[in-house]
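Minutes, methods subgroup
Present: GH (chair), OT, SY

1. OT presented the first of two proteins processed in the latest run. Sequence and structure tokens recorded below as shown on screen.
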Amino acid sequence: MAIAGALLVAGCATTPRQALTPMQAVFAAANAAPHATSGVFEFKVRATGRDGDRLYLNSEADYRDQRNLSIAILPDAQGELEQRYGPLAKGLIGRTISVRGAARRVRINFTDGGAPTGKYYYQTHVVVGTPSQIEVLPTR
């Protein structure tokens, strides 16, 4: 009986965690702030955008929405992902992605003429530095 109980506990310890929704990721990152929370995050891409050399995949149409989870893809990962999935900025809208990484709450400062206004809001980001962190799931 003790062996069966130990095997059951060991089996539970190796069972992969279920993917987090964007809302779960936002709450977990807020609770962990200023640290990140690691996991697998899954959602349908509703919008994309660029800021400098980073490409963002967003769970909401408006990236400023407090429920939004943004996946920030660094330049080193973009080329291989585009070879695998086609143009990321347009080709992934409406597709469901699974991302392994760490969700972190990021402070976004409002500026006026390049100077901070003292007003800000938070976004939740997962930074992707390697292509293996992202998988585009089959259409259901």
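2. SY then presented the second protein from the same run.
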Amino acid sequence: MLKLSKLTDYAAVIMAQIARDPGHAHTASELSQCVSLPQPTVGKTLKMLSRSGLLVSRRGAHGGYVLSRAPADITASDIIAAIEGPIGMTECSHADGDCELQETCGVADNWQRVSLAIRTLLEGVTLAHLAQSSPIKLPVQLPIQSVTLPSAVKA
């Protein structure tokens, strides 16, 4: 099963909560109560999102976490990559991927197409989409036959 970790799911929930009131600096304690997650988990997630550049931490009496960019400028792909690392179905799906079977496997090109299609779709879903209460309409359809692979990733 292809599945994101719970921490990535929590990161999306936390980011969406912050995006609903982007002008306010949010504390870990406040967010923990709002999203019903343990404060240590929220704190860990906030630190990871800050390290990745998606959040900015402010100190002081009115401190807390704020988005580094507008919700429309942060993608689902950004959030996933902040917690999970680069998005790819297989090792050879990354530009710097290293696979001992790459020369003989015969499926690398197709897996790379699938990975690129998934990344492209996730880059089309923004935090603004995730934060809204109504269901999102996926912004793109990707027939993978039309996906063009960068030459750096081709087998």
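Chair's summary of item 2: The longest helix spans residues 108-123.
Next meeting: continue with the remaining queue.
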